[in-house]
Amino acid sequence: MPFAQIYILEGRTEEQKRAVIEKVTDALQEAVGAPRETIRVWIHDMPKENWGIAGVSAKDLGR
């Protein structure tokens, strides 16, 4: 059973998250031949203050 974990900064819409789930599922099905019903996708919404870029939080960078 393929299991994908996606880490993204908070603020994405529900529609965007649905698109990520659908496209990652499609990619795994195509790449490894896994049946769709066995593929799992977990999106982690990361608070901007918990995400660092070059030593600075994404929140402080205005991301």
Rounded Rg:
14 Å
Shape label: elongated
Sheet with most strands: 2 strands, parallel
Helices and strands, in order, run as EHEEEH
For the largest beta sheet, what order do the strands appear in spatially? 1-2
Uncertain runs: none
Give the helix level as a range of percent: 25-40%
What is the number of E strands? 4
The tally of helices reads 2
Structural class: alpha+beta
Distance between the termini: 34 Å
Mind explaining what this structure looks like?
By secondary structure, this protein is an alpha+beta fold. Helix content is 37%, strand content 29%. The protein contains two helices and four strands; from the N terminus they run E-H-E-E-E-H. A hairpin with a 2-residue loop joins strand 3 and strand 4. The protein is elongated, with a radius of gyration of 14 Å.
Brief overview, please?
The chain has 63 residues and is of the alpha+beta class. It has 2 helices and 4 strands. The mean pLDDT is 96.
Question: Secondary-structure blueprint of this entry?
Answer:
Blueprint: E1 3-9, H1 14-32, E2 40-46, E3 52-53, E4 56-57, H2 58-61
Parallel strand pairs: 1-2
Antiparallel strand pairs: 3-4
Give the tags.
29% strand, elongated, two-stranded parallel ribbon, two-stranded antiparallel sheet, 63 residues
